C-alpha cells in the first residue's frame, strides 16, 4: 500500500529528484475537520514517476500523530495564498 502525491513540475528540474527513491520523509498536513487537526507521520519514498504525470509514491506509515488546532469549531473558508521563500514561490490555499 502507498500514498500518491503529485509533484510540482518545477521539482523535475532539480537534482534532488534523482535521490528521492528510498529517502526518508516527514509528511505534515491539516485535515478538513471542524477542529482542523494537524496530522504528521514519518515514512519513506517508494518511487517516483514523471509519465504520464509527475507522482511521488510514499509508503503507508505504521503510526501517525494528530492534534486538534483549535478548541472550538470554526466556519469553513478557502483563501488562495502564496509563500515566497528563498526566491521560490509556493501557491496554496488556506
Second rung of CATH, namely the architecture: Roll
Number of helices: 1
Main sheet specs: 5 strands, antiparallel
Portion of residues within helices: under 10%
Overall pLDDT score: 84
Structural class: mainly beta
Beta-strand portion reads: over 45%
Low-confidence stretches: none
Explain what this protein looks like in three dimensions.
The protein has one helix at residues 9-12; strands at residues 2-6, 24-30, 38-49, 55-59, 65-67, 80-85, 88-93. Strands 1, 2, 3, 4 and 5 form a five-stranded antiparallel beta sheet that branches. A two-stranded antiparallel sheet has the order 6-7. It has a single domain (2-93), classed as Roll (Pnp Oxidase, Chain A), CATH 2.30.110.10. By secondary structure, it is mainly β. The model has no long low-confidence stretch (mean pLDDT 84). The protein starts with a strand and ends with a strand. It has one helix and seven strands.
Features:
single chain; 94 residues; mainly beta; Pnp Oxidase, Chain A; 47% strand; two-stranded antiparallel sheet; 5-stranded antiparallel β-sheet; 1 helix
Amino acid at each position: 500500500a502507498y500514498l500518491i502525491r503529485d509533484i510540482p513540475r518545477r521539482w523535475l528540474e532539480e537534482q534532488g529528484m534523482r535521490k528521492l527513491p528510498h529517502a526518508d520523509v516527514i509528511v505534515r498536513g491539516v485535515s478538513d475537520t471542524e477542529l482542523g487537526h494537524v496530522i504528521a507521520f514519518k515514512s519513506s519514498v517508494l518511487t517516483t514517476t514523471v509519465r504520464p504525470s509527475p507522482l511521488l509514491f510514499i509508503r503507508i506509515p505504521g503510526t501517525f500523530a494528530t492534534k486538534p488546532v483549535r478548541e472550538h469549531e470554526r466556519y469553513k473558508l478557502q483563501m488562495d495564498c502564496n509563500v515566497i521563500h528563498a526566491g521560490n514561490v509556493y501557491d496554496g490555499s488556506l
